[in-house]
Design goal:
Layout (H helix, E strand, L loop, with lengths): L6 H8 L8 H19 L6 E6 L2 H5 L1 E8 L2 E2 L9 E8 L2 E9 H13 L5 E3 L5 E7 H4 L7 E3 L2 E3 L2
Parallel strand pairs: 1-4
Antiparallel strand pairs: 2-3, 2-7, 4-5, 6-7, 8-9
Helix pairs in contact: 1-2
Length: about 160
């Protein structure tokens, strides 16, 4: 499958700054992002769950992994997608996106929760229960490895 995987193709779609912050706008953006990323990579949009971090991550260094919305499982807890794509935006548009297999992200989230990290209510009027993860931890390869009988193995 040939895809037009270019910086220009990605930037064209995702570089428009957000001007409205609400659930309906976020949902529409997420669905459009899933289709665009899937098209660029030559995959089905059902294979992606897309979440967007706006400019807060540039100030805090944190990425929010959604687990519940309004008291009901959502995000990582219910996705049937194969990949989790996190779009990181600056105030004036796209910075980058990170794509992680859902299976591996669940390993990381479970490890962090078992180690004492507690999800907290944030975003959308504090209706989203998220695990807040430092960007350096999100990209720490060692934390994605599963443990078997006390030994780390490839996941």
């Amino acid at each position: 499958v040939f895809t037009n995987f270019t910086t220009e193709a990605i930037t064209k779609f995702m570089s428009a700054p957000f001007t409205k912050y609400d659930f309906i706008t976020d949902l529409a953006y997420g669905k459009a992002s899933e289709k665009t990323i899937a098209n660029i990579l030559g995959l089905s949009s059902k294979e992606f769950e897309v979440k967007t971090e706006r400019n807060w991550w540039t100030k805090t260094g944190n990425i929010a992994i959604e687990l519940e919305y309004k008291g009901k499982p959502s995000g990582l807890n219910i996705t049937e997608a194969t990949y989790w794509a996190h779009v990181l935006q600056e105030p004036d548009g796209l910075f980058c996106f990170v794509i992680i297999p859902v299976k591996k992200l669940k390993i990381l989230v479970n490890k962090l929760i078992k180690s004492g990290e507690e999800p907290r209510m944030v975003g959308d009027g504090n209706n989203s229960k998220c695990l807040i993860v430092k960007k350096e931890i999100l990209l720490n390869y060692e934390l994605y490895r599963e443990e078997s009988n006390g030994k780390k193995t490839k996941s």
